[in-house]
Automatic annotation (TrEMBL):
This is Uncharacterized protein. Pfam families: DUF4807. The lineage of its organism: Eukaryota, Metazoa, Ecdysozoa, Arthropoda, Hexapoda. It comes from the Eukaryota. It comes from Polypedilum vanderplanki (Sleeping chironomid midge).
């Protein structure tokens, strides 16, 4: 016959706990499934303890055979009653629950932001690759870069903000707005000198080369148009 008792947590969820024999690897096992306690309140042997005391209770079951034996004998002596452990809030919380909830929310928000940024980077890269051939796609890529900038400002990451500005400068180059793009690239290049990671500086140099090439091709196309008119 399995010896069991019930645990009622602080959310009033009910779990059944079995005391196992010596041959088992673990001295106790909690069956994590919802149960209902039958009978009236008079048929329950209720013990109210807080979570810290409950940890000690489980630890004693796990490590002290005498405690486990006495508990089993006590439960057996209640044939028409249920042994119920009711978890109650402790008078003093050793764990700052409020701060834990704040940190949990911030971590979840950071995960969602990183997930969103990865999607925006993929989407922005796709539109940017088409921006060399279609101006409308370059404009959309620029809007995505602006949205990424807002997220970078929200999380307070200056390196990410700088990269997003460079993404926006690529959109400007594709729209033939060279002076504005030139100013952004120069500002971010100066900022890259203050950053240990050299990838941002290489990114600036690469986009600067694209700016020079695109500006050169733009001038040549304008010359060809003038010649055709003549």
């Amino acid at each position: 016959m399995k010896i069991s008792f019930f645990i009622v947590d602080r959310e009033q969820k009910i779990f059944k706990c079995y005391l196992l024999g010596e041959r088992h690897k673990d001295n106790y096992r909690i069956k994590a499934e919802r149960n209902e306690i039958c009978g009236t309140n008079e048929s329950r042997f209720l013990v109210s303890i807080n979570c810290y005391q409950f940890y000690i209770f489980l630890n004693e079951i796990d490590n002290c055979s005498n405690f486990k034996f006495n508990l089993a004998r006590k439960i057996k002596s209640l044939p028409n009653s249920y042994f119920v452990v009711q978890l109650i809030p402790s008078k003093y919380e050793y764990i700052d629950v409020t701060w834990g909830e704040i940190v949990n929310r911030l971590c979840y928000e950071q995960i969602e932001i990183e997930y969103m940024l990865s999607w925006l980077s993929t989407l922005g890269g796709g539109f940017s690759s088409l921006g060399d051939y279609f101006v409308q796609r370059a404009e959309i890529a620029g809007k995505i870069a602006i949205y990424q900038m807002k997220i970078a400002i929200r999380i307070g990451d200056p390196n990410l903000l700088s990269r997003c500005k460079l993404y926006f400068s690529i959109s400007l180059i594709q729209q033939n707005k060279f002076k504005f793009a030139q100013r952004i690239i120069r500002d971010e290049y100066e900022f890259s000198k203050t950053v240990v990671d050299g990838r941002l500086r290489k990114m600036c140099l690469g986009i600067w080369s694209k700016l020079q090439y695109s500006h050169k091709m733009y001038k040549e196309s304008k010359r060809n148009l003038r010649r055709q008119k003549l």
